[in-house]
């Protein structure tokens, strides 16, 4: 890593990045691509951003990367990085590997950022005082969708899910949001997917959706196996939302307000592709460390960590509102973007959904809703 | 009846066509970021008298000290384009570096300091020779530019680094970096060059610094009834020449704050158009103009009465405003 203008005596702050190969079950559609550097590319951009600032604060940031294979456990690499004096870890890991991290014996003076796992349990009963989340939870996504649909007065929802357990988790979040914001689930059906939806959709989807009185079809299909083929094929003319159609995301191509064009273009110039949600959440994690380090003007773990979790901490992330970590479960409160591939439809929290602390806390598990209380 | 209105229409058109040939009245120039145009507002009638094309994504706008040249940042054309104020015709382009967002003209008019947001640099341009004098490395996403009225210090704010960088205009070296709250957008000096004011959009605050010691003198916060605190996002600012008042455009809060510049107390909030961005005043400080991005208009504030007296429709997404006498 070279850095023009940095003095030799710069404080060096090394951040560990642990990624893992992802399981990709076969899906019908072949139009989605999965960039190999998704996630880590965002962290690298944030390192560059931190180092531009570091020229003026005499701080140097370095990313130490390690990628696990599909079946590998995280314990060994964490132990190795800990012994090398790394204090901050960006975990780009699927839920089951993250669980293994939390079950291992972690030194208490380390902080871990979950940038990928959206499962409620990590913000709820399985939370951990050393774990912060820049990834959205499924509950933040479903609350964002619910606010928009309620505002539109599309209150009767027909929920379609695959049999996969992850999709069941998204349905759980949808059901919780429906209750929270006053929507009604009028029908719930499982798409068993034992035929080719690409060819069969015009015949199957009208039959599948016929005879139900609803405002919006909500689909739970995180791996995009069949969800895209529901659009425009329903028996009644109804919009599709959820994991396809209108989707809730941390980041996406349509974002251009609030200075987002600058981040989009900087990422494109670096990586020759558009920034995705996982790139963005890893950018946020590394920027949070950099921002706190520049404020406390130190590379000391305790000082940085304390500041990052304090009321004084604020992170600007090109979504129009300052972000900070929830004290009770370590979740970064942030706006959630509702979009389809070519436009931002709404930025949530939607105006009118009030909260005594901040409107951002209308999204995801609020203090009384969460079984996690790290606040002491 | 028909005839009369037709005649009126005709004479209106005549006036519109004639305008650029007339002697310059008090005039405001507004960049319309999403129309690639500048709207010309006559400040006696408070009407738009002309709209002309300037190039892609116009944002920062200013006049030369002699009021003869209009400088417009056309960001996506990667230049600062120079127009003849009399004819509204382009004269030449300045070498601004890539993607200039905004700029400031030195009091003598011989230099322009511009922020190049994608390259993390400030470019200094010699306006007479039309060449680059220097490029200075600053923080991530340089944005706001200011210059002290005595011409000694230029300020750049970097939005993601969250600093105001103090640039010595002789050596082009950075002499100090002041941390401010999230997303610093704009900066300005008092006329006596003794204080620097920096707005932080996401932080929702304004930091005031002493220019001798670089000490922070005050941090102003805004408490606007009925608006969530994180929607109060100060961007553009205007400081009166007698050092008594400061005005801040509060972005999506759709208000301009009036602040006592001695006590830093907020005196008033004035409701203007949506997403209020930049401010400019008439030389006699009777009128303050605001650009309102989302509502696509300009609010005119009577500064004495602290009242919005008119809103003037301009192009899409008005960004900057400059006024000449």
CATH topology of the largest domain in chain A: Rossmann fold
- Give the overall average pLDDT of chain B: 92
With strands numbered from the N-terminus, the spatial order across the biggest sheet of chain A is: 7-6-8-9-10-14-15
- Evaluate the radius of gyration of chain A: 21 Å
Radius of gyration of chain B: 19 Å
Number of helices of chain A: 9
Beta-strand level of the residues of chain A, as a percent range? 15-25%
> Overall 3D geometry of chain B?
globular
Give the termini distance of chain B in whole angstroms.
Answer: 38 Å
SSE string of chain A, helices as H and strands as E: EHEHEHEEHEHEHEEEHHHEEEEE
The total strand number of chain A stands at 15
Structure commentary:
The complex is a heterodimer of chains A (376) and B (325). Chain A folds into two domains: 11-136 and 252-334, Rossmann fold, CATH 3.40.50.2300; 139-248, Response regulator (Rossmann fold), CATH 3.40.50. Chain A has nine helices and 15 strands. Chain A has helices spanning 40-57, 75-83, 95-103, 138-151, 165-181, 197-209, 260-271, 277-296, 301-308, and strands at 11-20, 59-68, 88-92, 111-114, 131-133, 156-161, 184-190, 216-220, 240-242, 246-249, 315-316, 322-325, 332-333, 336-340, 343-348. In chain A, the strands form three sheets. In chain A, strands 7-6-8-9-10-14-15 form a seven-stranded mixed sheet, covered by helices on one side. The two termini of chain A are 40 Å apart. Residues 1-7 of chain A have low confidence and may be disordered. Chain B is mainly β. Chain B contains one helix and 28 strands. In chain B, the strands form seven sheets. In chain B, strands 3-2-1-28 form a four-stranded antiparallel sheet. Chain B has a four-stranded antiparallel sheet with strand order 4-5-6-7, with no helix packed on it. Chain B has a four-stranded antiparallel sheet with strand order 8-9-10-11, with no helix packed on it. The longest helix of chain B is centred in the first third of the chain and has 17 residues, at 2-18. Chain B starts with a helix and ends with a strand. Classes of the chains: A alpha/beta (376), B mainly beta (325). The interface between A and B is medium-sized, with 26 and 29 residues.
């Amino acid at each position: 890593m070279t850095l023009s203008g940095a003095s030799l005596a710069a404080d060096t702050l090394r951040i560990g990045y642990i990624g893992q190969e992802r399981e990709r079950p076969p899906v019908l559609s072949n139009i989605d691509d999965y960039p190999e550097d998704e996630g880590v590319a965002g962290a690298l951009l944030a390192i560059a951003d931190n180092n531009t600032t570091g020229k003026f604060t005499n701080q140097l940031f370095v990313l130490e990367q390690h990628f696990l294979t599909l079946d590998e456990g995280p314990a060994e690499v964490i132990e190795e990085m800990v012994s090398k004096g790394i204090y901050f870890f960006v975990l780009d890991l699927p839920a089951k590997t993250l669980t293994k991290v939390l079950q291992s014996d972690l030194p208490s003076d380390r902080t871990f950022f979950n940038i990928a796992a959206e499962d409620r349990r990590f913000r709820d009963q399985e939370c951990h005082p050393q774990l912060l989340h820049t990834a959205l939870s499924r509950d933040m996504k479903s609350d964002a969708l619910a606010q928009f649909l309620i505002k539109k007065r599309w209150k009767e929802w027909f929920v379609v899910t695959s049999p996969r357990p992850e999709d069941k988790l998204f349905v759980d979040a949808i059901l919780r949001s429906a209750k929270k914001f006053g929507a009604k689930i009028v029908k719930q059906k499982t798409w068993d997917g034992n035929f080719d939806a690409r060819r069969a959709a015009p015949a199957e989807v009208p039959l599948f959706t016929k005879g139900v009185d609803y405002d919006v079809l909500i689909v739970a299909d995180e791996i995009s196996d069949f969800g895209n083929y529901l659009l425009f094929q329903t028996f009644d003319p109804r919009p599709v939302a959820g994991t396809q159609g209108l989707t809730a995301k941390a980041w996406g191509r349509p974002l251009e307000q609030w200075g987002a064009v600058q981040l989009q273009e900087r990422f494109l110039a670096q990586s020759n592709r558009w920034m995705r949600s996982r790139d963005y959440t890893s950018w946020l994690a590394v920027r949070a460390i950099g921002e706190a380090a520049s404020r406390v003007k130190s590379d000391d773990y305790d000082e940085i960590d304390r500041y990052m979790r304090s009321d004084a901490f604020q992170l600007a992330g090109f979504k129009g509102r300052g972000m900070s970590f929830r004290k009770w479960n370590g979740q970064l409160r942030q706006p959630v973007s509702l979009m389809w591939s070519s436009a931002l439809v709404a930025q949530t929290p939607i105006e009118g959904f009030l909260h005594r602390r901040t409107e951002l806390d209308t999204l995801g598990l609020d203090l009384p809703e969460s079984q996690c209380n790290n606040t002491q | 009846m028909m005839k009369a209105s037709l005649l009126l229409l005709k004479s209106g058109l005549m006036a519109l066509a004639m305008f650029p040939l007339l002697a310059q009245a008090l005039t405001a120039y507004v960049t319309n970021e999403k129309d690639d145009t500048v709207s010309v507002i006559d400040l006696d009638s408070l009407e738009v008298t002309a709209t002309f094309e300037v190039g892609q994504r116009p944002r920062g706008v200013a006049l030369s000290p002699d009021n003869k040249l209009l400088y417009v940042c056309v960001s996506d054309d990667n230049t600062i384009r120079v127009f003849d104020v009399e004819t509204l015709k382009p004269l030449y382009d300045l070498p601004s570096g890539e993607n200039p967002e905004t700029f400031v003209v030195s009091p003598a008019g011989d230099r322009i300091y511009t922020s190049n947001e994608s390259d993390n640099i400030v470019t200094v341009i010699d306006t007479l020779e039309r060449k680059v004098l220097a490029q200075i490395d600053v923080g991530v996403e340089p944005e706001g530019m200011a210059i002290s009225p005595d011409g000694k210090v230029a300020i750049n704010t970097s939005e993601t680094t969250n600093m105001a960088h103090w640039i010595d205009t002789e050596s082009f070296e950075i002499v100090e970096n002041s941390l401010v709250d999230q997303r610093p957008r704009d900066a300005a000096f008092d006329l006596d060059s003794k204080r620097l004011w920096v707005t932080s959009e996401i932080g929702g605050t304004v930091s005031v610094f002493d220019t001798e010691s670089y000490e922070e003198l005050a941090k102003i916060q805004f408490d606007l009834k009925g608006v969530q605190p994180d929607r109060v996002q100060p961007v553009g600012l205007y400081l009166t020449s007698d050092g008594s008042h400061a005005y801040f455009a509060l972005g999506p809060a759709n208000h301009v704050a009036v602040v006592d510049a001695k006590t830093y107390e907020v005196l008033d909030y004035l409701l203007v158009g949506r997403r209020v961005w930049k401010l400019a005043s008439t030389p006699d400080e009777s009128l303050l103009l605001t650009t309102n991005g989302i509502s696509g208009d300009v609010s005119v504030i009577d500064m004495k009465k602290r009242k919005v007296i008119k809103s003037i429709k301009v192009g899409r997404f008005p960004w900057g405003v400059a006024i000449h006498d």
